[in-house]
Specification:
This protein is an alpha+beta fold.
Amino acid sequence: MLGEGGFGRVFKGVLSDGTAVAIKKLSSGGHQGDKELLVEVEMLSRLHHRNLVKLVGYYSCRDLAHNLLCYELVPNGSLDSWLHGPLGANCPLDWETRMKIALDAARGLAYLHEDSQPCVIHRDFKASNILLENNFHAKVSDFGLAKQAPEGRANYLSTRVMGTFGYVAPEYAMTGHLLVKSDVYSFGVVLLELLTGRRPVDMSQPSGQENLVTWARPILRDSNRLEELADPRLAGKYPKDDFVRVCTVAAACVAHEANQRPTMGEVVQSLKMVQHVAEYQDPLPTPSTNPHNKQSSTTFESDATSSMFSSGPFSGLSLFDNDNISRTAVFSEDLHEGR
């Protein structure tokens, strides 16, 4: 068995051609279980992106209450297990690996929001639904709660509140109004997990620090305190300027008002620019021990790049005031890579 959750259990399997796969056996949830199966099959049948888990097939037998989903095997566990579980206990994720995971997960969500037709809201984006390859490239999984985004004038869906405590956006939790920007909030929580190493909700923390976003918000507003957020397991081995930039992205994503949050496309661009700045500048004195991270040899020109955010309190903030890096280079790479 690979894992277990509220949806059921996940087992490792092997197809007749020798391909290793993951088999999710959904808990017998009656009509709701059937609905989640159909949603996930329908979604993944038409969603194809390198940062989304691929559905291989499914089996359903209502009489026996058997609902099985067969996925490509993503062999290196979840982000949750690396940040908060046994996988990362002896070998914590370094800064470069965390940023690789953040960018991949952002690309997966951006595809759902901006490149799929119709647009999809994941509704249960969290660290345990980010699965990792052996080279730590990330794939977004578990589309059982996903919803098709509204079209036309309506910018939200009225729906029963579902998701995971600590990741659910405030407007959705309070009103049942689900927006595309509700996923952005959830991504911001995951980004804070990567920065801090803390769980979204941890009752073992001191009073007032149990909720990650509530604890982090006042620190994110004070540039002199940002290093208080850093995961102690990073042992200070991260570029300080990049840490500040990623904190800015996280703060924008978890803004209380949905219209103050960036789009996932803007988040992808911002994280890619952070990555390119790190590649352009001199390497850290203590290089990453992760052999899977490769650096780009791209040359950049300055074009007075400003903030990637088009709205919200961070819209006028330049993340890259003095960096000799071109936004054009990042966009042209998008066209080459398909985001």
